[in-house]
Amino acid sequence: MMKREMEAMMSLKKKSEIRSAIEELSMSLANLRTSTTTHDDDDHIEDKIPFHLFISLCNLLLLLLDKIGPTMAVLRQDIHQNIQRLEMVHETDSSTYSNLVEILKKEVAQGNAKKPNSCTRALLWLTRSLDFSVELLQKYSTFCDENMNQIVEDAYNITLKPWHGWISSTAVKVALKLVPGHKTFLKAVMEINDENPEDSLRVTQELDTFVSLLKPLLQHIHSTLRAHGVDRLKST
Questions:
Q1: What pTM was estimated for this model as a whole?
Q2: Long-range contacts for 134-137 (Cβ within 8 Å, ≥24 apart)?
Q3: I need a surface site. Which of 55, 150, 218, 232 has the fewest CB within 10 A?
Q4: Cα–Cα distances in Å, from 92 out to 98, 101, 231?
Q5: What pLDDT does 196 receive?
Q6: Which segments of the chain does DSSP mark as H helices, in order?
Q7: CA 186, CA 105: separation in Å to the nearest integer?
């Protein structure tokens, strides 16, 4: 009896990054909606991109790429550099820049938003990378029996390839040939054994929940970028 209780407690304590992200995302979005209920403008929520929530999601993506393996090193490096760029500016005024829209507005006003090393570009590319993660997890949840290489390639083609130059696209295409298989991916990302039907069902439900929470946030960010005319920038 005591052994079973201990195992149950350990199971509750052990969470995959996806499960932790679901909890954080749910809480953050609830707080964001609460903070905007006092405003008459229905679009006010689109003026807020919480820094800590956004960076937390980007760091989750880094963990996801790490678990896919070194094949995604090029994409991982870009994401890491863009996170650092936003963090450096945030540190200069953490109160003002707790809302990433304030960085965007400042760069647009100064005419720096479209420059190669702008924070606006960092925000845009990180958002596209999160689009990639959503597409990847959504396809994995729907077509979990399909070849992992194909799932990752399809997600890349839809979200990132249209904005990448020839060099980046070629590097990713080579890397895709080394993507791990279905079982390795499942065990690494969700920390389960795919031979257990209950675990597989839970994975599908959690991926669906995570995607359903993240997609509206990404739509808000794209809407904000589009409103400032910086949503269609390509690789420099």
A1: 0.85
A2: 134/211, 134/214, 134/215, 134/218, 135/159, 136/64, 137/18, 137/207, 137/210, 137/211
A3: 232
A4: 11, 15, 25
A5: 63
A6: 2-13, 17-36, 51-68, 73-92, 100-110, 119-142, 148-159, 166-176, 182-190, 197-227
A7: 40
DSSP string of 30-54, one letter each residue: HHHHHHHTT-S-TTGGGG--BHHHH
Q: Residue 108: CB partners within 8 Å, gap ≥ 6?
A: 120, 228, 229, 230
| Interatomic CA distance for residues 162 and 156, integer angstroms | 9
Along the chain (236 residues), what's the average pLDDT of each consecutive run of 10 residues?
A: 41 59 78 55 63 93 80 86 98 97 97 97 97 90 76 92 88 77 69 62 82 92 96 90
Q: Which residue has the tokens 């390795």?
A: 184
Q: CA angle at residue 49 from 227 to 232, to 5 degrees?
A: 35
CB atoms within 10 A of CB 230: 19
Q: Which residues contact 213 (CB under 8 A, 6 or more apart)?
A: 22, 25, 26, 29
